[in-house]
């Protein structure tokens, strides 16, 4: 069942993962994290099987993370921040944007 259209297309996130490397669970977990955080603000999160060590994440066709270029896999904090920066730069991600304990220690010194 399709939702009524508001006229504005919602962003599409595509996660391409290597089937040879068995990265489906990693890709699915990241998709779940994005859907949990951004909910109805995303139009789709697609999992796209790939090969040859591929692991890349794109928002509306623009690559925001590529495993080889960016040096491995994103942590969830970095992933959510990059998605947020593409779809809603002013959005507060709560604890994801908060200071770390190490930052707090530096501030007290």
Outline of the structure:
With 109 residues, the protein is of the alpha+beta class. The protein is built from 4 helices and 4 strands; from the N terminus they run βαβββααα.
Explain what you see.
This protein is of the alpha+beta class. The chain has one domain (12-89): 3-Layer(aba) Sandwich (Glutaredoxin), CATH 3.40.30. It is 36% helix and 22% strand. Helix 1 crosses helix 3. The longest helix has 15 residues, at 24-38. It starts with 11 loop residues before the first strand and ends with a helix.
The secondary-structure class comes to alpha+beta
CATH architecture: 3-Layer(aba) Sandwich
User: What is the fourth-level CATH superfamily?
Assistant: Glutaredoxin
Structure annotation, total helices: 4
Kindly identify the CATH topology.
Glutaredoxin
Cα(first) to Cα(last) distance is: 57 Å
Assign an overall shape: globular
> What string, H for helix and E for strand, traces the elements in order?
EHEEEHHH
Write down the domain tally: 1
Mean pLDDT: 88
| Estimated radius of gyration | 16 Å
Which spans have pLDDT < 50 for at least 5 consecutive residues? 100-109
Which range does the strand content fall in? 15-25%
* Biggest pleated sheet: 4 strands, mixed
Strand order within the widest sheet? 2-1-3-4
Q: Helicity range of the residues? A: 25-40%
CATH structural class: Alpha Beta
By DSSP, the count of extended strands is 4
Organism: Methylobacterium gnaphalii
Region (Disordered): 88-109
Keywords: Redox-active center
InterPro entries: Selenoprotein_Rdx-typ, Thioredoxin-like_sf
């Amino acid at each position: 069942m399709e939702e009524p259209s508001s006229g504005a297309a919602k962003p599409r996130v595509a996660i391409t993962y290597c089937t040879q490397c068995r990265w489906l669970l990693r890709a699915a977990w990241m998709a779940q994290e994005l859907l949990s955080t951004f909910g109805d603000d995303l139009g789709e999160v697609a999992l796209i099987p790939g090969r040859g060590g591929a692991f890349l994440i794109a928002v509306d066709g623009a690559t925001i993370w590529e495993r080889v270029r960016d040096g491995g896999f994103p942590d969830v904090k970095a992933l959510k921040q990059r998605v947020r920066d593409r779809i809603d730069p002013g959005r507060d991600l709560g604890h994801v944007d908060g200071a770390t304990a190490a930052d707090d220690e530096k501030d007290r010194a």
